[in-house]
Specification:
Radius of gyration: 33 Å
Oligomer: single chain
Number of domains: 3
Number of helices: 17
CATH architecture of the largest domain: Distorted Sandwich
Bound molecules: guanosine-5'-triphosphate, magnesium ion
Number of strands: 18
Distance between the termini: 64 Å
Strand content: 15-25%
Strand order of the largest sheet: 14-15-13-16-17-18
Helix content: 25-40%
Shape: elongated
CATH class of the largest domain: Mainly Beta
């Protein structure tokens, strides 16, 4: 009995507005100590608390957790230094030079991954790992492992050109800057220091020798060649459109047992070569070279990353209007976007794909009438059902009893929608739709979640307003939404095509005639407002459709209209 009470109080708590929702601490410890909840139930309690903490934290960030544009400075790893050493062995005086070479610095790759949705986790300075230094007894340093920058799918990567003031200096410019204002001797001393390793106390002796001077010349020549090759590569600056995840590749050089190389992404900055150990400078005239070279710097490069979320349709609405619920209903629950009754549930834009067959049926419709509840409620219900199944007592939950329209037997939840689903052969059109975070007044001044996602709205071909018809004045909501779009970018509201009046189910009040008449009046008023006040470009008016996203009502009409807008935007119809 306690278990049921505890669970339902959790559900209640989650449904209240967020500011006053706290799951009392005692309930957790009390449940654990006194009522011996099993592990699954304890996990559910823990999960509820974690969800609450995470959402509160995200909200405090004020939208900073979504970033769609960053500039990053990347450096390949520095190569390891070469070593100066001589072989020592009993009865072998004057052993040969035995210093190992340094290992290569780590390369830096960039790789798209479907698990990320924002660029905010990417540091602005990234360095490859340094190679290991060479050691005595011919031990070469270890090559460093590559560094992989993971970015969301749909990221566009551009190398900043030389004349861009935001570009960081490359390795040669950085050295030049550190030498500025020094006298000739000081300059030379510093350059020597950054390139050579000497046997202890032999530095002064080394630099006077011809053999060292010759080595120095060949080192500078090699450096010049490297610099020239780098300039040549810069003629084709890096420009990547990371739209798909790569796969493992067959590699002829891989060990036989493996045969494949792991997919690392695209190489953007090479690590520096390791320095040479002193055996490399052995020659007939110099039998005991007492110098070695230091490792080279890795490549330095500045990249601009931009997250290009392009959906055909963008949903625009105040917080809690039901945008996420609508996206879930249109995609048959496949779009994993969070739904809850508090404002700013959605913090990052989420894109869903709508698949439509030639007779206008969309994929989400195949499951029959389905109720799209809040995420926490759905999860808790599934957990409840699992528990009941485990105990062998499949009793209907109280939620199901109270809502007549609910037809959520688990079978309809579990319609397979993966690859190979029979809808594949019916599909004749497909488009994408983006669920955006809620827009509030003064969002264009960076209030609420602010600017960050308005940019992604800007990229959609057509916009759809979602308003809460059960609210006191949906027309005011519309006016505010339009004003915000216009303030952010004049002319943006001309992309709007449709007004969706959501939560129509709340107005009917169980079929009470007076309530229905009132609801009709309200809808009429909204339509009049849209017709007179919301005229967009070319004198066209917006369509107004009442729906219930939660109970999947009237969605077919919405999909039909959306398809028409997308076809128009893509130039499929005249
Ligand atoms: N009765 C009813 N409730 C709905 C309907 N659509 C959404 N809701 C409820 O409205 C609340 C908010 O829904 P969300 O989909 O999270 O709203 P949102 O617009 O995405 O909100 P933000 O992400 O905060 O901007 C949830 O409690 C939903 O269950 C509907 O058609 N009818
Ligand atoms: Mg949402």
């Amino acid at each position: 009995m306690f278990k049921a009470a505890c669970r339902s109080s959790l559900l209640q708590a989650q449904r209240r507005p967020f500011s006053c929702t706290t799951i009392p601490k005692e309930s957790f410890s009390k449940a654990r100590n006194e009522h011996e909840l099993d592990n699954g139930e304890l996990d559910a309690l823990r999960d509820a608390r974690r969800r609450q903490r995470r959402s509160e934290w995200k909200r405090r960030q004020g939208g900073e957790t979504f970033l769609d544009h960053v500039i990053i400075n990347v450096r390949g790893g520095r190569g390891g230094n070469g070593c100066v050493a001589f072989h020592r062995e009993k009865f072998k005086p004057l052993g040969p030079p035995s210093g190992g070479s340094g290992g290569r610095g780590g390369d830096v790759y960039i790789m798209p991954t479907p698990t990320l949705t924002t660029l905010s986790s990417i540091p602005t300075r990234i360095r490859g790992r340094p190679g290991g230094a060479g050691q005595g007894t011919w031990q070469n340093g270890k090559n460093a492992a590559p560094t992989i920058i993971k970015v969301p799918l749909g990221t566009v990567v551009r190398q900043l050109p030389r004349d861009d003031p935001r570009r960081a200096k490359d390795e040669w410019e950085a050295e030049e800057e550190s030498l500025e204002g020094l006298s000739f001797e000081e300059r030379r001393a510093k350059m020597l220091e950054s390139r050579w390793v000497h046997y202890p106390e032999y530095e002064n002796d080394n630099v006077k020798r011809d053999i060292f001077k010759q080595s120095e010349v060949s080192l500078y020549r090699e450096e010049r060649e490297r610099r020239w090759a780098r300039r040549q590569r810069e003629l084709n600056p890096i420009q990547l459109d990371l739209n798909e995840v790569g796969e493992e590749e067959l590699d002829v050089n891989a060990p036989l047992a493996l045969g494949k190389t792991k997919y690392l992404g695209h190489l953007i900055a090479q690590g520096g070569n390791g320095g040479l150990g002193n055996p490399h400078f052995l020659s007939p005239v110099n039998r005991s070279p007492k110098f070695a070279t230091k490792g080279h710097d890795g490549e330095r490069i500045t990249l601009e990353l931009e997250l290009k979320i392009i959906a055909d349709i963008g949903l625009v609405g105040m917080p809690n209007a039901g945008k996420s619920t609508l996206l879930r209903a249109l995609t048959g629950g496949r779009a994993k976007t969070e739904v809850a009754s508090y404002a700013f549930t959605t913090l990052n834009p989420v894109v869903g794909v709508i698949r439509v067959s030639s007779d206008g049926t969309f994929e989400g419709e195949l499951q029959g009438v389905r109720v799209f509840e809040e995420t926490a409620v759905e999860e808790a219900r599934l957990l409840e059902q699992e528990l009941a199944e485990e105990l062998g007592e499949l009793e209907p939950s109280s939620e199901q009893d109270t809502s007549p329209a609910i037809a959520n037997d688990t079978a309809s939840y579990e319609v397979a929608q993966g690859p190979g689903h029979y809808f594949d052969i019916l599909e004749s059109f497909r488009f994408t739709i983006a669920d955006n975070p809620g827009l509030i007044s003064r969002a264009s001044e960076d209030v609420g979640l602010g600017h960050s996602f308005l940019r992604s709205i800007e990229r959609s071909h057509a916009l759809v307003y979602v308003v809460d018809l059960s609210g006191p004045a949906p027309w005011d909501e519309l006016r505010d939404l339009r004003e915000e779009l216009e303030k952010y970018q004049p002319g943006m509201s001309d992309k709007a095509r449709l007004v969706i009046a959501n939560k129509a189910d709340l107005l009917a009040n169980g079929g009470d005639e007076a309530a229905v008449a009132e609801a009709k009046g309200k809808l009429k008023k909204l339509e009049d407002y849209v017709r007179t006040e919301m005229v967009v470009l070319e004198g066209r008016t917006l369509d107004v459709i009442p729906i219930s996203a939660k109970f999947s009502q009237n969605l077919k009409k919405v999909v039909g209209l959306l398809q028409a807008y997308v076809e128009e935007a893509r130039g499929l119809v005249e």
